[in-house]
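README: folding subset

This subset contains proteins for which both the sequence and a predicted structure token string are available. Records are stored as plain text. Below is the entry for 26S proteasome regulatory subunit RPN1 (809 residues), shown exactly as it appears on disk.
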Amino acid sequence: MTAVPKPLKFLRPHYAELTALYDKWPVGELQNALADVLSVLGMTYADNNKRDSLRYRLLAPSEEIGNWGHEYVRHLALEIGEEHTARVEKEQSFDELMGLALQIVPFFLKHNAEADAVDLLLELEAIEKLPPFVDKDTYARVCLYMVSCVNLLPPPDDMAFLRTAYQIYLSQGKLTQAMAIAIRLDDHESMRAVFSATDDVLVHKQLAFILAHQQIWLSLENEEVQECLSNSRLSEYFLFLAKELNIMDPKVPEDIYKSHLEHTRAVPDAAHVDSAKQNLASSFVNSFVNAGFGKDKLMIVDDEASSWVYKNKDAGMLSATAGIAQILLWNVEQGLQDLDKYMYSSEEYIKAGSLLGIGIVNASVHDESDPALALLSEYVENRSVPLRISAIIGLGLSYAGSQRQDVFNLLQPLIADTSFSMQIASLAALSLGLVFVGSCNADITEVILQTLMERDETQLSDKWGRFMSLGLGLLYMGKQDAADVIIETLKAIEHPIGRNTNVLVDICSYAGTGNVLKIQNLLHLCIEKAEAEPKEGDEASQKADDLFQGYAVLGIAIIAMGEDIGSEMVLRQFGHLMHYGEGSIRRAVPLAMGLISASNPQMKVFDTLSRYSHDSDLDVAVNAIFAMGLVGAGTNNARLAQLLRQLASYYSKEANSLFMVRIAQGLLHLGKGTMTLSPFNTERQILSSVSLAGMLAVLVSLIDASSFVLDTAHYLLYFLTPSIHPRFLITLDTDLKPIQVNVRVGQAVDTVGQAGKPKTITGWVTHSTPVLLGHGERAELEDDEYDALSSTLEGLVILKKNENKVEAE
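--- output ---
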């Protein structure tokens, strides 16, 4: 009470008498003045739930609500929230409360209490009334607070917050921030509205770069802007980065394995550990390490007969040939040229590999002439199963996120016709899921549901069926309650696939939302089986029956990954699940840990995974090893590299485990340490649906690794391709040519709600662009010589000379 004027302190004991007196006084100015005083005195009687401050304030309307000070206004806001809740329960009108709140909001905004203003309107469920009160001085803090609240709000409030922040950014001309929010809303109309808000072609190009990173396809009128959106120069910029960092020299797998550091025990037969499997592993390592660089020492050689492709056998040739495309990633012209000679090979698997390669080399890049569609469409109906499968997956990878109707027309008959094998139908469904990710496409949904209901039990029990379920799930990525109808429909399918699909659709629809109730539901699913009696029967049907629990564990990671506190808590839950869970749960836990921390090598995560990699159950160990690769993907982390070398010697006689150690080593050195698999970008604000979809396809196959990746379906690992992004910051001039400027790179600091103008990075080092950005790092320009057209310095950023630069004395 120190801030309360003296006379009011002496009135406090007489409060009861004064309230009685108020009712006796005649109506008029004097009575209003008394109500004004009683409203302030009422602050000190907060314990009797009468909400007197608010009651007397409503009886004495006043324009100057802030005259009694900040504490009084905050107290009023608190009582408005309580009163609103009470009136909603009784279904009474609250218009007068709204009028008072809209008087309080400008006061809060003027006095640096942006969070209080937002909270008040949230209580009254009227956040859309905020934009008119926000100006150029307050918008930044208001929007920062609102956007950081989104992960903690239940639907539909979360979307309402994003829409309001979008309107504020758009009205203040902050177009790159508005675009980031339009992407989070996944609303193409809003994205187009951002383009329409300015005529500046340079800004259009910057917006196009942001969209291209998310693999969102829009058709725009300006050809130069369309070129930026099509990512066609990504390869050129990536090679510029490689030259600047002096890492152009190709690496061979041995540079990664460093076998001389492995403590392999001298065993006579150690050399004979399935050499075909190890050659295949080297093919993957070679293509991951040299990804995007366009040259290597094994595959792309002048003398075709000595190519590494021929050191593999059968399906291994398929993956090895597709690896050539991985090395030429994003470079469509060169890639198609180098793959062309393999298209005419007499070896069926090599030809199939070149078809898959066409899909890989076109991933994330779209060309006017549509080479992938032209070359692959004729093989979709081919009689040869490898050629057909490669063409289907190739189409999925090259058009991921494009929502192209012609791809739908090609692949839809393969799902609808029940005479096709489950493998072909399921991979077609998965490819369509990738192409139409997050679109809620009704036609595809109908076809997949129809097939699930029409096919007989033996077909539905096929191991490939899981990809049909996933294809359906991907259509509803991040769409929350839009999937409810589908989930209800799936309950009609009695076969276990109905339940598995149900869980997959559910987890995809809440991806990255941090929804706590969903996580609780999934944890309930995980303990279900332990209570039921185990059924007699063969192990395969047992595996199929409890698949949904494996998906539930992955789902916990997928939902929690959008929010830091949730991610921390979930890691503890995984420890419990590992301890008490059934087989399919234990197999999925390492994968979930890898996903939640992709390309973010936290010591506590990979140390735990390192423990699991020695598990007595080899399936768990293999997945833990892959997860170690996922956690360190593209970081060259030395500690992880050492752990993987130790695992290579530990499993030197176990072909499958050694194969997975090699894959993990390849991922760790992805693009020689210049790339990331993290589905988050733009300072961890945006979750890229396409990236997450690609990773999910691989993780779902790994829940039963011995049937897929460790068997002959290792080509499924190439579903990681749409998730691979360079983690660079390249600054471009107005002609889109790279320029060098100094930037500070440091750990990002959360500045939400902090007073003044706090520093946004800590522990920074000054570099000259281009630079690599690690997980949780942020860059800012060192001086004001240039203005960046993008609000976040990440990826490709266009700089403009600053006209108003203040010259130093």
